[in-house]
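Subject: for your reference before the review

Hello V.,

The reviewers asked for a structural picture of the protein, and I figured it would be easier to keep everything in one thread rather than splitting it across files. Below is the amino acid sequence we used in the manuscript, unchanged from the supplementary table.
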Amino acid sequence: MEDIRVELGGNLVLDGVSASFDGPGVSAIIGPSGCGKSTMLRTILGLVPIARGRVLVDGETLPEGNALLRMRRRFGYVIQSGGLFPHLTGGANVLLPARHAGMARGAARSRLDDLASLVRLGGDELGRYPGELSGGQRQRVALMRALMLEPEALLLDEPLGALDPEIRVGLQEDLAGIFSKTGARVLLVTHDLAEAAFLAADDALLLREGTVEQRGPMRELVREPRTGFAREFVEAQLGRSRELVGLGARA
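And here is what came back from the structure prediction:
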């Protein structure tokens, strides 16, 4: 992203954002509600108009039209609510990208089985409709759908935000294993500093009102916040997590 400015509904949402995400690994995009985190992901996918700047994928400016649709198949995307179609079973939701991409039925079913094993879901769950699944099961189905076409990059927008704390902790551990196995470049949007510390300890990007406030390893953000806002953001969450307490205690 190069000097990105995005205005939506007359509001300035991103203001001069520049950031690169190269090679394998997990990066967390963090910050308070309304700071532009979700818009960053949508901008990368070409889902919002850009007033200034440009997005490059492998050195090429984000294309338009059918070329943009083809490029999006290189990305897996999970929105905050999961975005499952309620009239389709879990399995049918997962297979939808394969159908649109023209994947052979046998290959698609084989990929479905592999993904079910990866996220630890059985055939019974995949045969149910989203309304019949638990929150954690729906998020696993949404993740399977995002991974269906073996994306090079995975964009996750608060994927665990609506889950109960007990379920959320278990899924965080599963996500860490999935990230390692897929090898995709992962961008994780979260407002939860503990979640960012667990899943993306090496690279956190803190946003404030559409601008990049600080970027670096999570340890550096916790120990050496560079601005008053960064310090306040860290201190507001510091006592909520053993991971963060450990980082702060060694500062």
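For the response letter, the relevant points are probably these. The chain has a mean pLDDT of 89. The first helix runs from residue 37 to 44.

Happy to draft the paragraph if you're swamped.

O.
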